[in-house]
Design a protein that fits this description.
Layout (H helix, E strand, L loop, with lengths): L13 E5 L2 H13 L1 H7 L19 H5 L39 H4 L4 H11 L16 E6 L4 H16 L3 E5 L7 H15 L2 E4 L5 H7 L6 E5 L4 H11 L15 H16 L7 E6 L10 E5 L3 H6 L5 E8 L11 H15 L1 E5 L6 H11 L2 E3 L5 H7 L2 E7 L4 H8 L6 E5 L14 H10 L5 E3 L6
Parallel strand pairs: 1-2, 1-4, 2-3, 4-5, 5-6, 6-7, 8-9, 8-11, 9-10, 11-12, 12-13
Length: about 450
């Protein structure tokens, strides 16, 4: 169980809310760029407990290890979801980041209880009362609003390891762990939200994040990339529109949308800068319509390049998967045909699956295209930077056509993007889908643009 806010200890001046590994990656990129500003805000008093609370290591499993995963017990051998690959699949070798083992109980037998807890916390990589905070990033607490999807959870755990290695606090919230989970999560975060000076968020469209925004009094709000959705968020904010994900825009609002409309409207107002509140967008995506007063900061993936690589570049091509089928935008059969044709035309041998792609779809892809399906343990930007990676990376319109050229700058790897043919769209796709996807491709820099493949 994760520790709750409201316990003794100093307020976290910067709180970051993430629900996906890509969001957490971009929080780390933002923190790397703004390390001086974050460190300058740290005001932790010596001897005060840290943001994980005063309950000690024994009760802080969620913050220190990413929380217990109830689904793990149901998997054979309790296997981690990030390594539960489909039969016949292989993974790019990404070793888990081990945490130091706690000291043996015998070594702690004669130690007073307070010192014993401190020793356990240090052994687990957590700061004990009185420890000095890391120089940079010490005042950033990352709150993971854990999703239920096993692959996403696995990638988030590994990204949380990297965040802790950089000296940031990580607080894992089972925000979707049952009917009462949202009330427990929001109630537990209310106190620390009110005390925070800066809120960093990865998904302004998230109902969870929008609800949390109604509680905070922070004067600094930062939106980091959540992929192509960031482009739509900035445009909607500039036009004063309600916040709706691009693949749902054009459809009639459902009952839940109408019920949540007041909260969404409040969140949009809070994300509009004024004399008392500053708003920053930290993005690697092209932003054309910038709302008045919003600061746009470029994400150049400096943290990724400094932390990993450069990769070994192999001959041949790799392909990047997309969840456009899962979101109801592209027809599944058409997508399968397009992948087969693209792989054949460019000699691709590996297919890096998107974390939201359905296992049944991936099994068909493997059987009918001969591609080796890889389910990465980390966001693709980090996997590619670690290598090995093909000299050409093939992709359909998605975030990676903007991020991979930055992460792989100077490596000689070419990113090629294939347009989505309008005939591939489903009957239920948003009327804006084709124009939005074309915009994603057309605004990408340093990529080779491919025409849509012809399907027999």
């Amino acid at each position: 169980m994760s520790p709750r806010a409201g316990q003794s200890g100093p307020p976290a001046r910067t709180l970051a809310f993430v629900e996906s590994p890509v969001q957490l990656l971009n929080v780390l990129e933002w923190a790397h760029l703004h390390a001086g500003r974050i460190a300058a805000g740290a005001q932790e008093a010596p001897g005060a407990p840290d943001a994980e609370g005063a309950q000690g290591a024994e009760g802080a499993e969620g913050a220190g290890t990413g929380g217990a995963d109830p689904a793990a017990a149901a998997r054979p051998g309790g296997s981690d979801p990030a390594t539960a690959f489909l039969p016949g699949q292989a993974a790019v070798p990404v070793p888990a980041l081990p945490e130091p083992a706690p000291p043996a109980p015998a070594a702690l037998g004669a130690v007073p209880p307070q010192s014993r807890r401190a020793a356990v916390r240090r052994a687990l990589g957590r700061r004990a009362p009185g420890d000095r905070a890391p120089a940079a990033g010490a005042d950033l607490t990352v709150v993971v609003l854990a999703p239920t999807d096993p692959m996403t959870r696995g990638q988030l755990r590994r990204m949380a390891d990297l965040a802790r290695e950089d000296g940031h606090r990580v607080r894992w919230e089972e925000a979707r762990g049952g009917a009462s989970a949202p009330f427990q999560t929001i109630g537990g975060l209310a106190g620390v939200l009110r005390r925070a000076d800066r809120i960093v968020m990865g998904d302004p469209f998230s109902r969870y994040v929008q609800l949390l925004l109604t509680i905070t009094r922070a004067k600094d709000l930062v939106v980091v990339d959540d992929g192509t959705a960031t482009m739509e968020f900035v445009a909607q904010l500039a036009r004063g529109e309600r916040l709706v994900r691009w693949h749902r825009k054009g459809g009639r609002p459902g009952a839940r949308d109408l019920l949540f409309a007041p909260v969404s409207s409040s969140a949009r107002r809070r994300l509009t800068p004024n004399a008392r509140r500053r708003v920053e967008v930290f993005s690697s995506m092209p932003v054309s319509e910038i709302p008045d007063g919003v600061t746009v900061t470029a994400n150049g993936f400096a943290w990724t390049r400094a932390r990993f690589g450069p990769p070994t570049v192999t001959a041949g091509a790799d392909m990047v998967g997309t969840s456009l089928v899962e979101t109801g935008v592209v027809d599944g059969e058409r997508y399968l045909e397009a992948v087969r044709a693209l792989a054949k035309a460019h000699g691709a041998t590996r297919y890096f699956a998107h974390r939201r792609e359905h296992p049944d779809k991936l099994r068909r892809l493997a059987a009918e295209t001969g591609l080796e399906i890889v389910r990465p343990e980390l966001p693709l930007e980090l996997i590619a930077r670690r290598g090995p990676v093909g000299r050409t990376i093939l992709s359909f319109p998605s975030t990676v056509v903007h991020t991979l050229p930055l992460a792989l700058a100077g490596t000689g790897v070419r990113v090629a993007v294939c347009d989505i043919d309008p005939a591939w769209l489903t009957d239920t796709a948003s009327p804006r889908a084709q124009g939005f996807l074309s915009g994603v491709t057309g605004t990408a820099r340093d990529v080779h643009r491919l025409a849509a493949v012809s399907l027999a």
